[in-house]
Write a structure and sequence with these properties.
Layout (H helix, E strand, L loop, with lengths): L13 E6 L6 H17 L5 E5 L4 H10 L3 E6 L16 H8 L2 H7 L5 E5 L3 E3 L7 H4 L3 E10 L2 E12 H12 L25 H12 L5 H7 E3 L19 H8 L7 E3 L8 H8 L1
Parallel strand pairs: 1-2, 1-4, 2-3, 8-9
Antiparallel strand pairs: 4-7, 5-9, 6-7
Helix pairs in contact: 4-6, 6-7
């Protein structure tokens, strides 16, 4: 794959839209299209690069045809030098392993590039130009209740990433400068239940805190909100396009503060009980 050209827009070189599931059905494709449309509208002039599973090549091509801002598409298990045949798409552990490779970040761009990484359950609520306030950091994501006390995990599903920082952290880990989930400053630790270490966002939150410029919690709260459980009151289907309207999102879903973006509006499994309680 050719190295991506630098396009400066609000401090971002590009948006990395990533979804590595091999089976993209019609329902999931609609989510990808909703997210791509949102990114194109909010960040005009910023290319969106779609990283996908090779088995989803047809869905990737359809996404690129439908949205002018979607530039190259890349099959992570076939088109990234050094990762040919990389097992990905079966579970979250494989996804985490993928993002912890230096080869993946090398394929994103140059060390100077800062990108917005977005999954198929994320979106931008605020003005696109406001990204400049967050893109000055090497890593920034919605604050979660997980992670080490000295570096609470900032979610990676919708996050600001500096390519050089991501590569620096992976190299530091390879050199033994810190342990995955158990740095010299403490951490979650590796156990039999987590043989691959912590999730990639916990890994990079801790690594960025040690070796880069991670955004402080106050900025992270302004950047994004984590885990929305929003469903249509009649159909119980997850809301998609309506979530991407600035004023309604700000007034209804973020009454305490206005976050620039969000992650996890389509969360089905882990929080099903909480969602059912909300629907009652």
């Amino acid at each position: 794959m050719a190295r991506l050209a630098l396009v400066a827009a609000g401090g971002l070189a590009r948006v990395v839209l990533i979804d590595v599931r091999p089976d993209v059905d019609e329902r999931h494709a609609s989510k990808l299209h909703a997210v791509a449309a949102n990114l194109c509208e909010k960040l005009p002039g910023t290319p969106v690069v779609f990283f996908h599973h090779s088995a989803a090549a047809a869905a990737a091509a359809a996404l690129a045809r439908a949205h002018a801002c979607v530039a190259p598409t890349t099959a992570v298990d076939a088109q990234i030098p050094g990762l040919e045949g990389f097992s990905v798409g079966r579970n979250v552990r494989q996804y985490n392993a993928l993002l912890k490779t230096e080869a993946f970040w090398r394929s994103i761009g140059e060390d100077r590039d800062t990108v917005l990484l977005a999954q198929a359950d994320s979106g931008i609520c605020g003005a696109g130009a406001a990204v400049e306030a967050f893109a000055r950091y090497d890593y920034c994501g919605a604050v979660t209740r997980f992670g080490a006390a000295w570096a609470p995990t900032q979610n990676g599903g919708f996050s600001i990433r500096n390519v050089g920082c991501m590569r620096r952290v992976t190299r530091a880990f390879a050199a033994g400068a810190f342990r995955d989930g158990n740095t010299r400053h403490g951490g979650i630790g590796i156990s039999a239940a987590r043989p691959g270490g912590v999730n990639e966002d916990a890994f990079f939150t801790q690594g960025a805190a040690l070796f880069c410029d991670k955004c402080p919690a106050a900025v992270a709260h302004e950047f994004a909100e984590e885990t929305l459980h929003v469903h249509n009151a009649t159909t119980r289907e997850p809301v998609s396009g309506a979530l991407l309207d600035d004023e309604r999102v700000a007034k209804v879903f973020f009454p305490r503060r206005r976050a620039w973006g969000f992650h996890k509006n389509w969360n089905y499994g882990q929080h099903a009980a909480r969602r059912r309680a909300w629907e009652k």
